[in-house]
Amino acid sequence: MVVPNVRETPLASEHARLGATFTTFAGWRMPLRYVSDLREHEAVRTAAGLFDLSHMGQIEITGPDAARFLDHALVLDASAMPVDRARYTLICTASGGMLDDLVVYHTGEDQFLIVANAANVATVSAELDARIAGFDARTRDVSDRYALISLQGPRAAEILAEHTPADLNGLRYYSAVASRVAGREALLARTGYTGELGFEIYVAPDDATAVWADLLRSGESAGVQPVGLAARDTLRLEAGMPLYGNELTVDVTPLHAGLGWAVPADKAADYVGRKALEEYRQSGTPSVLVGLEGTGRRAARAGNPVVDPESGAAVGRVTSGVLSPTLGHPIAMAYVPPALAEPGTPVDVDVRGSMLRMTVVAKPFYRRADARRQIAPA
């Protein structure tokens, strides 16, 4: 059933054909699962998974001052980015709070493509427009020009190689190249949100069905599965990757969230939020994002209070939690005071009135054998 005022991606009919269960997410009708959350999760860890991410938004930045403008508008040092590279970055308020986390592609001379979370596209676009005065640059929401398909997992390159002339072995992590996929023009990026190396494929909406079907059909023997939002969430949580609206909000800064590595300390240009972030870097933050692990089969969930076992006082909150399909025990991310942030520190989580003992651990919870950085390289 189509819900009024809820958008559908160009692949909606494919998801229905595959028997997907749908949910509404950020104003879009999206596949939650196809057959089984566990089966889809396992496919990405052991073979490959195919995701429809066409709900994500794209904003194009062009003009002679495009890089200089982004230096001002984002924490990113865009002027230092080579063409065909990508960076994970943040757009912050003057007080350092995060409006969204973004991926920025340097697609050509004086040209960048920003990828924003579906729920935040309008906010990001409006904020960029508000910050552009004085720069010879232009912003344009080009979300309707793109469908986004992601192929993630250890066999992703093997599957994709049959469909593209691009040199996949030479495509560095967090790089992108204009190429063809399944005979269609595409921006092919080595990026993802699962903890596995994989690829994100930006194509015209009219080409999405053909690319999706070809990858699914040819990858069947390699174990590729279509993957819904439910498994996407457990995959990113195992990989220790934050989700906007859970770990990341306008009420916390990148330094609260452990994303200080994405905030250049030596960036020459001034940018919105710099003063506040530099002050937090000097003084520290009142809470920090940590990983938690437990035993048994009961999982903490977003919103559960974190309790200091010694005082019995609620001192933090869980932002995401799940029984890890790969590891077989509960994992979570939570904001806690710095005094409780050291790995090995025990904490209690109040799960509907019952205390669940968990231990602070370093993130990510899951790391593939050939893993480097989980979110983005320098």
From TrEMBL:
<dbReference type="InterPro" id="IPR006223">
    <property type="entry name" value="GcvT"/>
</dbReference>
<dbReference type="InterPro" id="IPR013977">
    <property type="entry name" value="GcvT_C"/>
</dbReference>
<comment type="similarity">
    <text>Belongs to the GcvT family.</text>
</comment>
<comment type="subunit">
    <text>The glycine cleavage system is composed of four proteins: P, T, L and H.</text>
</comment>
<comment type="function">
    <text>The glycine cleavage system catalyzes the degradation of glycine.</text>
</comment>
<dbReference type="InterPro" id="IPR029043">
    <property type="entry name" value="GcvT/YgfZ_C"/>
</dbReference>
<dbReference type="InterPro" id="IPR022903">
    <property type="entry name" value="GcvT_bac"/>
</dbReference>
<dbReference type="Pfam" id="PF08669">
    <property type="entry name" value="GCV_T_C"/>
</dbReference>
<keyword id="KW-0032">Aminotransferase</keyword>
<feature type="domain" description="GCVT N-terminal">
    <location>
        <begin position="13"/>
        <end position="267"/>
    </location>
</feature>
<feature type="domain" description="Aminomethyltransferase C-terminal">
    <location>
        <begin position="289"/>
        <end position="366"/>
    </location>
</feature>
<dbReference type="InterPro" id="IPR028896">
    <property type="entry name" value="GcvT/YgfZ/DmdA"/>
</dbReference>
<dbReference type="Pfam" id="PF01571">
    <property type="entry name" value="GCV_T"/>
</dbReference>
<keyword id="KW-0808">Transferase</keyword>
<protein>
    <recommendedName>
        <fullName>Aminomethyltransferase</fullName>
        <ecNumber>2.1.2.10</ecNumber>
    </recommendedName>
</protein>
<dbReference type="InterPro" id="IPR027266">
    <property type="entry name" value="TrmE/GcvT-like"/>
</dbReference>
<dbReference type="InterPro" id="IPR006222">
    <property type="entry name" value="GCVT_N"/>
</dbReference>
